[in-house]
Amino acid sequence: MINPATLDFLKELIKNNNREWFQEHKGDYDKARENMIEFATSLIGELHNIDPGIDEALDSKKSVMRIYRDIRFSKNKTPYKNNFGISIPTMGLRNGGVEYYLHITPGESFIAGGYWMPENDHLKAIRQEIDYNAADLKKIIDEPAFVKLFGDFRNQEKLKTVPKGYEADNENIELLKLKSFVVWHKIKDADLSKADALQNVTALCTKLYPLTVFLRNALA
């Protein structure tokens, strides 16, 4: 589970996002990060049983994303993120962006899956897969239980115009316009701190697995 103290640390960080406060509470940060690493280790093991595309030897320390922000080109100069993130790639650390992602921030935590804003070559490959096998994708994203958990897959970033190589009258043009292929489900703070939090997150990822397979096949 995610310790309540981990969420408490993030709550205080949101109110005190500066280096002086962070250094004074470095011990609290270290404990919170260790909690996230432990959760990531367990989650990787559980997900490998569901999705063989996940390497069970994946280093959980590398899956827990850095809390330090790159402020060089940002107008927002706060030095730290107000969240912890666990990224679990399904094609290795450097080979593709199909992943499961757990975002932990007080009141706004969620589990997500898919491929966020793929690079051009991958985008073309995914669009081709949709063009060839749209029925398979629609069977996944229009399934009532999937919609109830994750909402409308079509309601995310997309082109305003028709993508190159396709016609406006293509019956799947709204899917082909998509620039991102992700879904997410919000998780309450109280649920993250329950003893069965790992099982509940894993169950949500099980529902994400068919989408993961579709996207991964597009890049194979």
TrEMBL record:
It comes from the Bacteria. Transmembrane segments: none annotated. Coiled coil: none annotated. This is TIGR02453 family protein.
